What we know:
Elements: H1 2-20, H2 25-46, H3 71-102
Helix pairs in contact: 1-2, 2-3
Amino acid sequence: METLMAFVVGVLYATAIYMILRRSIVKLVIGLVLLSNAANLLLFTSAGMTRGAPPLVPQGATVPAGVVADPLAQALILTAIVIGFGVLAFAVVLIRRAYEVVQADDMNQMKDTDT
């Protein structure tokens, strides 16, 4: 299963880089979203894909009983999702404002600052 996920992460990274290098600013934002999702999936895969119980320690014990899920990777991914959503919201507002000013979606037409 981890091999399949490694291929999926690689494809997501490749697609994200391809989209970021396009001239359209909308494709740039789509590439940023794909890059964020690829990073989240990479964190999730590197933590191990084992099904386990919540890491709760029973009363009187020093370690959790049985196989437990890794809470650190889950917390990092939740934080990354929130930050990624904030960046996406900012980028969408920035694109909208840039399109209102320049009236173009092409990055080459947005080089001029005299408009």
